[in-house]
Amino acid sequence: MVHPVVAEVTARIVERSRERRTAYLARIEAAAGNRPHRRELSCGNLAHGFAACAPDDKAALRTGIAPNLGIVSAYNDMLSAHQPFERFPFLIRNAARSVGATAQVAGGVPAMCDGVTQGREGMQLSLFSREVIALSTAIALSHDMFDAALYLGVCDKIVPGLLIGALSFGHLPAVFVPAGPMASGLPNDEKSRVRQRYAEGKATREELLEAEARSYHGPGTCTFYGTANSNQMLMELMGLHLPGASFVAPESRLRDALTAEASRRAAAITALGDDYRPVGRVIDECAIVNGVVGLHATGGSTNHLLHLIAIAAAAGIELRLDDIEALSHVVPLLARVYPNGSADVNHFHAAGGIAFVIGELLDARLLHEDVETIAGRGLSRYRVEARNDASQAVQYVLATGRSEDLSVLRPVAAPFRVDGGVRVLRGPLGTAAIKVSAVPEDRFVIEAPCRVFARQDEVQRAFDNGELDRDVVVVVRFQGPRANGMPELHALTPLLSVLQKKGHRVALVTDGRMSGASGQVPAAIHVSPEAASGGAIAKLRDGDVVRLDAEAGTLDVRVDDREWPTREAASADLSASQQGMGRELFALFRDRANAADAGGGIFHCA
């Protein structure tokens, strides 16, 4: 039995999704079969499919009776998190051959880095890159040559995009293969201090660049707990990683062994054998709820308020912000990882990591245990640590069940917070989300005159001119999916943090995104409807008193009730955000985009 709230939320998701989920399962059932689909290809089709393979692989594909694994890779060597994937196809092919299977790189998907594009025009393509990745995944698998697929991806929109694409081929088993985090660099609290000193004009660009270079310094995922590392947690809690795979260092013996084992596992769970595990059945309502619970318990990225809704929809499941909020009230915060603490994911992993979190949540009945995973039935299979045995293969040992560092990871009985810290705000300005896990409790309620902006750089200029040196609610609008692709607004964090440290009561209200990096400043994000769709946030004027109340769950404006309904919404010239840096190619995406509370994407399937 699970916790009553977890059971209640799951039941209502099941009920509201029944029609769509039934249709989805019927579709993937029709696509499944107990023989390779490539056997249905014409001789010319099949010959094209194996023309460049090694002789033994070509012979195996020619007979068509052994599993063939498709590799969908987000490799590029500009992203530190994805550079290690260069070697993975070699490891995967060799491991597949060891069990009589074959593997081919089916295709690549784009992988952009929000860390590089932050505050730049390219960031306006970031959210929509998720949809491009899903589309690219579909193209990679459209050759109908494969019995299962391995997905090589780590970062922000990449894993959600891969999973949305994988779910469109829900009859195929899917194994997600991570690359691991880079070694710890400059401590996060020191990096944060340099960033704030730079925002105040007290540090030079050279000092800032040196701090950033010491933080991001080698292959692997950035070590703070943003969307990329939240992705890895989700894939493990939702049963798509091998147990213990998420935070093992790149290019280590254990990482190579886990990659090889992922290939062998993919070959073992195809429809050609007796342990068929299609991804469309692994990702069900219980798996989605488990993902939400894991997000709350670890203080994961608010980007997943978008991504989990979109992922669920791709599986015929309707997840809502109300569900996410309801779970947040009963799931305690067990981890403090930057930006919600000073530790990084390597410290988190060393303290007990995901195995500890899963164990604690299972014991507290906050997770569904009886679920399908790629490792077998039952989430208890993930209460283990992965190690190398004497032959350098993967060996699993039962996790100790204790935290090795209570400043980073705590048990359910003594959490950092009794709840997950995600709230939904509602009021005359629309619906928004806020993450308060790092916000001081005396800042849960902010009421102050607002200052309205339509661009992030306008906020910087006002800050530099001293115009924000007071109690203020900074409103940044026309930042939603339909306006400019909904970029993250990270550049605001140091500025607002400086104002808060001066003692001012400040908050952010935006229809844009802030990821997991809003930190200690209260931020009402993902405001829906967005300004570009005529949302009420477009009615705000400089000086209007805005009240953000994370305790009551409200986002209000102190304007006369007779005036507010008749006040006209402001418009904005968005042309500068819709041309250049490839943005003109995404007009169709902007025109078709869902609201943020529906996932912010273009696939209208929920």
TrEMBL record:
Originating gene: edd
Protein name in UniProt: Phosphogluconate dehydratase
The species this protein was found in: Agrilutibacter niabensis
Record-listed [4Fe-4S] cluster binding positions: 155, 222
Keyword Cytoplasm: no
Keywords per UniProt: 4Fe-4S, Carbohydrate metabolism, Gluconate utilization, Iron, Iron-sulfur, Lyase, Metal-binding
EC assignment: 4.2.1.12
PROSITE patterns xrefs: ILVD_EDD_1, ILVD_EDD_2
Short name of any one Pfam family annotated for the protein: ILVD_EDD_N
